[in-house]
Amino acid sequence: MIYNLHSTQGVYTPGILRFCKDVYRSDPKYAMKIMRSYPGLPDEVSVAYLTGEINMTISDEIAVLEHKSQSELLEQVREELSEVANE
What we know:
Layout (H helix, E strand, L loop, with lengths): L1 E4 L7 H12 L3 H8 L7 H8 L5 E4 L2 E5 L3 H16 L2
Antiparallel strand pairs: 1-3, 2-3
């Protein structure tokens, strides 16, 4: 799933996310409090970003987080195995 976190005139979201990632090491509760201010962003995705499991990309002033659920990962593995079996 792809999460697009938009900036506003007063808040540059990619900068806020970088700040949260830096703060997470010393104060994870505070970092999560800020991450939870983005509606629709699951805690699982926030933690994955903050721990370095997934990266942020920036498109214009939009922070983009792409996170694959376990079911999406399993489907990807099945497709890859199917391709190998058909070779």
